[in-house]
Design goal:
Domain SHSP: 1-160
Biased composition (Acidic residues): 61-71
Shape: elongated
Family: Belongs to the small heat shock protein (HSP20) family.
Pfam family, one: HSP20
Largest sheet: 4 strands, antiparallel
Order of helices and strands: EEEEHHEEE
Region (Disordered): 46-106
CATH topology of the domain at 1-50 and 108-149: Immunoglobulin-like
Helix content: 10-25%
Oligomer: single chain
Number of strands: 7
Distance between the termini: 68 Å
CATH architecture of the domain at 1-50 and 108-149: Sandwich
Number of helices: 2
Strand content: 25-35%
Length: 160
Amino acid sequence: LVEFNPKINLSEDENNYYIHADLPGMTKDQVKMEINKDRILTISGERKSIYDNSQNKSENDEMETEDINENNEEKEKQETKENEETTESEIKKNKNEDNNNNERKYSIIESSYGKFSRSFNIPEDADLENIQAKMENGVLEVIINKIEPPKNQNRTIQIQ
């Protein structure tokens, strides 16, 4: 699997700096934001894979899985006999759902999964005390207010 590297958009207007991170399928609980004393904002987290690694098992593991599936099918048949109210169509539907989940094979996986970390230098005129962040529809929006930078006033230094 390819390492996940979220797409980022940086922008600004006269009042704010904006960071937008595309984090599809992620929640705010899966994302961490930190800022250090050097004014570096880091966004990190992990996008968990939905890909089932069981496809990489050896033939022995596949045989064991088939045996388990056969045992499950036998149990289902016994339960069907005991429960006369269950129709044949419901049984077939349940078997098909189980088989689809156990036998899913991906032909193309274009999505990326894994851990990520992105860091940004925050400008001197940014208000580090009032950073706002919200997550909506898989997009993290960070808003950093601008403040007036400390003015470097020229002053005369007396030489002694």
